[in-house]
Structure prediction request, 252 residues.
Amino acid sequence: MSKRQERVKQLIELSNKYDNLHIKDAAKSLNVSEMTIRRDLSNVASYPLYLLGGYIVYNKEYHSISQYFMSEQQQRNVSEKKYIAHLAASLVQNNEMIFFDCGTTIPYIIEYIPEHIYFTGLCYSLNVFLALQKRGNCKIILCGGIFESDNAIFTSINELSPLDIICPSKSFISAAGISLKGVTCFNLPEVIWKTKAIGRANTNVLVADSSKFDGLKSACFAQLSDFDIIISDHISDKYLAYCKKSNITIYQ
Prediction:
């Protein structure tokens, strides 16, 4: 067992012992620096631990979340998602505040944002939060609330949320289905965050691989005309014509 693995094992034991384990207390207990702890937990997909507001949190839903990360959706169309993510990341400018939706393409966007770009990331899903946390050039705002383990997102328990007072410069929105009837997702709890972000952001960017087009899922959260930019690996003539008519910029 490596020193890092041994420290993580000790951190798991500490987090089970204490309900609120701050990183400062953990570093003192292990006789290491806070930066060492942060580095140890940087690859949090491998461990049932993550950092949240300076506290080390033991993820009791670790196994179900691991299944979420390794789900079929995570493994499909990976090359297309990475291609889309490169295009999307190139739109991020220095000192912007960006809303990042949930979805399997979004973490790739965060990964491909150049290191010299400083930005603030606003999110509501665990996988996106963990991706943002790895970026030293990013300040994070997490829309908190009840954690929904089925799709690893947080749903608000208050009337007000950060999205009620913040206007992001850009929103990167994902979708499970795109048609001329509407832009849709599978999960109803996502709708409130998506619609709020679209209503607040200065520029709304829809990111989706070509398999999502001509699909219609159970929860409708927007119309294509709500977006300023659409990024995909391929867009058919039908949608290209609609986008031209609606003054939507296309990247493909």
In short: The chain is about 35% helix and 25% strand.
